[in-house]
Amino acid sequence: MFVNGCVREGSRTLDLAHHLLELVSPGFQVEELELATMNLQGHSRESLVERDKLLAAKDFTHPAFNLAKQFASADLIVMAAPYWDLAFPALLKIYLENICVSGITFDYEGDEPVGLCRGKRLYYVTTAGGPIFCDFGYSYVEALCRHFFGIPETLCIAAEKLDMLAPEQVEEEMQRVKFGMKALV
């Protein structure tokens, strides 16, 4: 499964993600979610009331749960999002908010969350024009995978300071990161 949180044309993050997908997916069909085209909505008072009713009835047939079911059934996930404002674009947060569903992607045993996702690995791909520090984006995704989704391994693939480099250095850095991906698959 490919969760594409890239919003710009010519995205360097998307370029790295496509290279990674070529490495991890030979012989497999990749299902791509292009978040920028999906009209995702954050929760509102009204949607939370409806969602809570469905969850109380354990009725997971509603379309509001389709993204969570899709994510939970994925064998491998590649998530790509540029490094924006110490994290990632809001679209990815809205997507994550929509897939955090008790009874589908996680449940509770006592007061501890237990992951229900099938995937064993998530690759998080990002690029930044400046330096990456305080990466709340990857840290957040990693914590969700470990504590909620039950995905035991997350790997971050990043290229940083790309807007601070000369054009030929940008290409060198992108190639260096692409070459390093081989060791991670």
Q: What would you say about this model in short?
A:
With 185 residues, the protein is α/β, with parallel strands linked by helices. It has six helices and seven strands.
Can you tell me about this structure?
It is a single chain. The chain has helices spanning about 10-25, 45-55, 65-75, 90-100, 135-150, 165-180, and strands spanning about 1-5, 30-35, 75-80, 105-110, 110-115, 120-125, 155-160. It has six helices and seven strands; from the N terminus they run βαβααβαβββαβα. The strands form two sheets. The protein has a five-stranded parallel sheet, sandwiched between helices. It has a two-stranded antiparallel sheet with strand order 4-5. The radius of gyration is 17 Å and the shape is globular. The mean pLDDT is about 95. The chain is α/β, with parallel strands linked by helices and about 180 residues long. A hairpin with a 2-residue loop joins strand 4 and strand 5 (about 110-115).
